[in-house]
Amino acid sequence: MSTPLTVRVDRAADGQLVLRAAGEIDASNVADFAEALDAAVDGDSTLNVDLSAVDYLDSAAINALVPHAESLQIIANPLLMRVLTVSGLAELAKIRSATESAD
User: Cβ neighbours of residue 43 under 8 Å, at least 6 residues apart?
Assistant: First the structure.
């Protein structure tokens, strides 16, 4: 059974691409997430990945993020901060909780 996930890529007011995901990211739907992530990363600029509406992610999602980690700025649901830190992703990518200011 597939877990509900929506992924879209928008352009922010400053012109930067933002990948927004909502729902849960796991092995049942990570291919859609990874495909959108791969398409949005251009290698020249930072991609903002908004996971503030993601309630759950597993190692499949971490594995999709790691290859692009150095070019990502992730805004995460506070519920995800522990798994992002324990996985080591927080050492590779810029990650902040959605409750923190964007200074």
Answer: 71
